[in-house]
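Example record for the data management plan.
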Amino acid sequence: MLSQLRRIVQDVAQEPALDNALAGLVSSIKTALATECCSVYLADYQQQHFMLMATDGLNQDAVGKVAIGFSEGLIGWVGQREEPINLAQAHRHPRFRVTPEVSEDRFSAFLGCPIIHHRKVLGVLTIQQSAERVFSEDEESFLVTLGAQLASVLANAEMRDAASQSPSTMAKSGQLSGLPGAPGMAIGEAYVLQPSSDFDAISLKKSDEPEKELALFYRAVKITKAEFNRLAERMAGHIPADALAIFDVYHQLLDAASLGQEIELQIAEGWCAKSALKRVVEKFARQFDDMDDPYLRERGTDIRDLGQRVLNNLLDSEQRKVKLPQQVVLVADNVTATMLAEVPREQLVAIVSLRGSVNSHAAIMARALGIPAVMGVNELPLLHWQNQQVIVDGYEGHILLSPVEAICAEYRRLINEDAELSARYQQEVALPSQSACGKPFKLMVNCGLAIELETSNAEYTDGVGLYRTEFPFIMRNRFPTEQEQVELYQKVLSGYADKAVVMRTLDVGGDKALPYFSIIEENPFLGWRGIRLTLDHPEIFLVQIRAMLKANIGLDNLHILLPMISDLAEVDEAIRLIRQASFEVSDELNIALPKPKIGVMIEVPSIMYQLPELAARVDFCSVGTNDLTQYLLAVDRNNARVANLYDALHPSVLRALHQLSEQARQLQFPISICGELGGEPAGVLVLAAMGYSRFSMNNSNLAKIKWLLRRVKVAELEAILPDVLACQSPKQVKQLVQRFLEQKQLLSQLRA
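Corresponding structural encoding:
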């Protein structure tokens, strides 16, 4: 039964046309369950009904014509209850609706199962039989399991179908929804980047240039064969000769007499090289999967491994030939710093990440660059985006594919309005950072992506509240040397001379990976990251601290920040290593070094309850609201399935932040905010009401936050704080702040 399930799901996923996919689906289910009828109804939320989209057993003329309201009949009942309905005498049930067009009079038994994707009912699967009987538990379990597996496949298929329609149709159906990752709007051409390929991401497409597709395939095969030769040479002498024979098998499979010939035939039939490769590899792999012999079943794995290698080289060949569009919307499964480096900044207008959420690293990078981003857009296979014109709305989390000119014109008008608002904020960027009642604030910047851009407005800031040192590590193919780090840190420290620069020690792990230092963990955010990693590798930590200390000579504006602290012993060990590095540099250069201030990031909940002990050990603390929110709410901020649960304005998070502020004030322990919450209008108003006065944010947000703070009085903010802390949901908090801004007549002048 498992192999039947797998085959049905794969067949639906592989079929490029939604109608054909559904037709094949109902026939496969009917055969697998040996029933008389199988049908699928898809939900139309605009029309509020389920439409019969495919059937094997009912009247074919009813397909695409018969609609059943969300509250009507057994189909509507399945959708409302969101669970299977299993009836022996369906026609006698009070919810049964007679629909003459479908000709189902002869059927008595009915089993309906909802297809649900991200809590949304996409449709209903049904099987029917003339005999009056309750379908068995096995049959019901099969349909429920199939419905669960089909949910994401059907969501992808619907979007593929919409994306392949005419531009006029796309204006209505080509909108994708994700999570607002970074504010702003942009129009550009999608450019897909992916460091490693996956057949699941391949959308089947035709090509009218078979010679070109064959040439691409032959080139990828040639590169793959050369790779196998190198691998065989490297492994020779280390593994038995019979084990090396697998490379000969791979060579044979790629030859024209085997898989190669099948792929050539597919290309001749009009499929592009990627699609032909996918169709053939999945076809042969499924055949091996269904075999009884364990040895032969394993050959399915070999086929997939071989196909994956060819696909990697095929995509590399394509990407090398792609000319970047003038206005690039970078699309990737998970946007990384190295991907951003591949696109010139002047051409990059927006980011779309199929994975991740509002505070994933990709979103943080987008906000740092001041470009719109939408996250968690997983409804459409990655490679189907390539070369499509795209509108990205980072405020609402919407994406429009191939929009008509009228829609483009409207968004160009909105983009111009955005530019006017930004110009209004910039007019006051040189004014003091203070409230309307004169209370001073320290507004600092988070940086680390592009030094030249991030130091351009240094005179209007109060320094750097968070310099992310991991980016120089991520952008290289090896650990940077001490001298390379010295030169880099000197640029930052001298760019903000006479102002504090808070440099966070290397913080990798979680969603920040080094390409040359792989960390593979089941729960990366709860694993080996931040200070845990660098204390385990003091050779990395000491070199970085030495470089910081050398860069600070003659400037004396360095502050060192320790990330991911969860235990006081980690602080003690880090301080010991900082002292050791200071002694080494002082001895090496024979000079007395300025002593930098040392701080700790408050992002792991455990350290919140040891603030008095921290205050006795370090000079300051900085609250990382991104990770603190993640850990308090137990929500992986990169997981789109639970991203709606992640919200830094959650009452529990706000109460924790208020508690931290109160305790820090009593201890006279300097505290600041360096997380994303401190750069958002609603967040900064609530934090200012709590007593926070030092905020570090992305450079692109600084002018807006300064403009906002200059228009409110602290007493006004303090007056709404009790109501904020009494809220029971993030929605209530946002509504309360929105009412405050409306009363101050500021809401219409903010787009956040």
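Summary line stored alongside the record: The longest helix spans residues 294-321.
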